[in-house]
Amino acid sequence: MIFFEENFFRFSDDASLPATDPAVWIHRQKQSTRAAVFRLLESGVPFRQVIYSPDPAQLHADFCSFFREVEAAGGVVMAGGRLLVIKRFGKIDLPKGHLEAGESPEAGAMREVEEECGIGGLQVTGSLPDTRHLYFREGRWCLKHTCWYLMSCSPDQEPAPQTEEGIEAAYWVSPEQFSALSGQAHPSLQPVFRNVLDRLAACNT
Fold first, then answer.
1. Would you say the pTM of this structure is higher than 0.85?
2. What value does the mean pLDDT take over residues 155-177?
């Protein structure tokens, strides 16, 4: 899914979807789909839109071409049985940021966590679900693709929020607190929170 604030677009190749359902678009021509996407984005009306195509790979490529694509990476850090979260512009969030030229997603994720939270000695221990969301900035619509990684570090570090990036707080929480806070995070981050919580639950069984 590709999120825009509380809304999302979902791609499907399920031919049984009803063509008469207003929540389902059939992708036939690139330009008509582009016009419909921007009409919906700019309407201010909440949406949960499904776009159907028998060729989801081509649909995805066409959809991405409508926007300026931005590559980013971030991480969920676990240390000493606790997890690292941040609060940015009043919302629960996870440290992330744009990749630099020639930088790998793993390296970019570790750099962003270190910069935004003052945490060092990071090691990537696994991959988490990628996320995609849309935003409007400087007169352009952008599609951000973020690669997420599970990380570890020494447990004796106190986070220091990078306030110039709008981060109000960075702190360790218990798994129970992490679960409770997940509902306060952006909808696009929910797959990341769920994956981490599922891993924790599997470790405890």
1. yes
2. 94
